[in-house]
Amino acid sequence: MAVAPEARRPIGQGGRSPGSLRPERWNEIVDAAGDVFDEKGYAAARIEDIAARVGLLKGSLYYYIDSKEDLLFAIVDGNHSRGIVVVEEGAALESADPPTRLGAFVERWIGILGANPGYAAIAERDLRRLSPERQAIVMDKRARIHRFVRDIVEDGIADGSFDAGIDPGIVTNNVFDVLNGISQWFHPARPLTYEQLAEHVRCFVLRGLGADPETIGPALP
Amino acid sequence: MAVAPEARRPIGQGGRSPGSLRPERWNEIVDAAGDVFDEKGYAAARIEDIAARVGLLKGSLYYYIDSKEDLLFAIVDGNHSRGIVVVEEGAALESADPPTRLGAFVERWIGILGANPGYAAIAERDLRRLSPERQAIVMDKRARIHRFVRDIVEDGIADGSFDAGIDPGIVTNNVFDVLNGISQWFHPARPLTYEQLAEHVRCFVLRGLGADPETIGPALP
């Protein structure tokens, strides 16, 4: 059965899947692509290698995708879609104080990292290899996530939870540089879990913003 | 006059230059390469474009280099060599307290960024495009710079200037993620200079480590 080009295009939003493929099967293919991109690097990764990991021939995999970039997009966009979920969950905390809201965001963000460590590393490293149109889709999500954190920072400056002298634009970028950098160096094989890492990073970030130690919560272990 | 291959190889250490070329002329060529890499991206940059900017024909530029990667190495390695200079200057501050030493490092590091903004962005983005041998040379410098900061963090934990609960490995990585991220988003066209940026980042980092506000020094503007 032929699949219309539009329906075949993977959109990587974690629920829908291309054409006639079961979502579980599509996720297996995307996971296999992520493993191969991680091991060989995107440029050197071959469709044959990805297909072989999921028991397909190269030609059969091309039935579902047009190019290797479709799989990269599924990974990068899917990772950012998970970030949007964190933002949407965070909106439910609106009545909490800004340090609590930012702390929850950092913990959930690092939770996503822990659940998909390879995906986050690829999303940071290979975003620029996507077509301009696909980069724009991802950058829209990034902008929305960035705005969410910046709003919390501005709320915290306004209500005195954070230092009035900080520049919200700068610290928001600092916070994302800390969060996005983690996937490039953290290996849970270190004697530390993602949960413990999240606790350290939450404290580093909230202190950096000048939050009252009382609001940061329990001291580090 | 023929130039021996070894002498022709640019080593980008800010003083020596390939073969018979005057250092000033070599620096002009490397600067032109940096501009072209920045504008077009390394992959799309053409030797012709670089040569044209310094009034050379492509063939004449190839007299001094073997490949485009020679110019990338000059930029990336040169940028890290400037980092080593900051470390060496920082060693002179050994008798100061850890927050002062780390604060001085952050300020000088961002000073380098301000002097060569395009270089730092290329160094972060395109490091992986160097040959494994050249990446190893750069990674050795990176490790030395990393060790310098980690030593300060450990000294600060030992003498109580920083929070005893922090993990020196994690926060050192957080600090470098903040510093290395800057070149990807900061534009001095914003109404803020590199000096003001450095002051914000210094406070963010020192607070993040739990330094006493007294030792951080003057409040933000």
CA radius of gyration of chain A is 19 Å
> How much helix is in the residues of chain A?
55-70%
Sheet with the most strands of chain A? Answer: none
- Count of beta strands of chain A: 0
Name the CATH architecture of the largest domain in chain A: Orthogonal Bundle
Query: H/E order of the elements of chain A?
Result: HHHHHHHHHHH
**Which fold name corresponds to the CATH topology of the largest domain in chain A?**
Tetracycline Repressor, domain 2
Summarize, please.
The structure is a homodimer of 221-residue chains. With 221 residues, chain A is an all-alpha fold.
List the helices and strands and how they pair.
Two copies of one chain form a homodimer.
Chain A: H1 5-8, H2 23-40, H3 47-53, H4 58-61, H5 68-91, H6 98-115, H7 117-126, H8 132-158, H9 168-185, H10 194-208, H11 213-216
Helix pairs in contact in A: 2-3, 2-5, 2-7, 5-6, 5-7, 5-8, 6-7, 6-8, 6-10, 7-9, 8-9
Explain this structure.
Two copies of one chain form a homodimer. Chain A has two domains: 64 residues, Homeodomain-like (Arc Repressor Mutant, subunit A, Orthogonal Bundle); 142 residues, Tetracycline Repressor, domain 2 (Orthogonal Bundle). Helix content of chain A is 67%, strand content 0%. Chain A has eleven helices and no strands. In chain A, helix 2 packs across helix 5 and helix 7 packs across helix 9. The longest helix of chain A is centred in the middle third of the chain and has 27 residues. The termini of chain A are far apart. The N terminus of chain A is likely disordered. The interface between A and B is medium-sized, with 34 and 34 residues.
